[in-house]
Amino acid sequence: MKKAQFLVPTVVSFHEDGSVDYEGNAAVAEHLIAGGVDGLLIMGSTGEFYSMRYEDKKRLIDASIATVNHRVRVFFGTNCMRLEDTIALSNYAIDAGADGVMIIGPYYFSIEDRMLERYFDDLCDAIHGDVFLYNYPERTGYDFPVQVAVNLLRKHPNIKGFKDSHSQLTHTRSLINATREEFPDFEVYAGFDENLAHVVLSGGVGSIGGLGNIYPEICAGFAQAVNSRDLDRIERYQVIMNRMSELYAFGTPFIPIIKEAMRVRGVKVSPYCQHPVLPPTAEQCAKIADWVRTIDEMAAKL
Length: 302
Hints:
This protein is an alpha/beta fold. It is built from twelve helices and eight strands.
């Protein structure tokens, strides 16, 4: 069994005018590192990469590398609308000291498998560092086929892992089964927090989940319980992770919901998101505060 890991796709703190709040982002990173998680993914979906200016992305890469300072692994989502910009930003991150970059397939239009494979062929040929593939069919409008992933792995040794934000665990298991013998070091992560144990027991590595922004110590503890093979502890963590996952349904999108829960816990993150996303309503804030109290009570019994 591979060592279980929990990585966090971090929120990005913004000022009300949409500019990047570097002090707030440093506070987020310190909160997560102190919580014991295995790594940070900055400017993933939870980090609102799709709405950030290109130059702001570069500045956040530099600031984050300096803050993390090799204490945990750090990855960056480097997607841009144009392939050339994605390549340039990916190499910028790697040259700055990133452990790798994570890239989702093109979005807006569904595309054929051959087009998806060609897109990542061009990317991986041009990126001089580690690449993690990202499947999120609810956002791209299509699935990332297992066979395309295998084809790419056979051609590009710099592809090191895969985040599978798929509602069906059968897809994640199929990916693990198709790669585990030929590529034993390939890292497959669930995109949903509560699926960590299942994915690791199936031969994957763990989860990259947004709830770690709020309770990094619980998410890190879940991974540690899996690594200890303590079934009683795993069960107790699974129960609390299942309850924690209810937060995702409190608002759409869930990013301002996560930020508000972090603020309730004392993390100095700004409540603002990029347009058109608004901070939670008073009713949502009350619901979030109740949720935090419930999770705190459950955590005290772990």
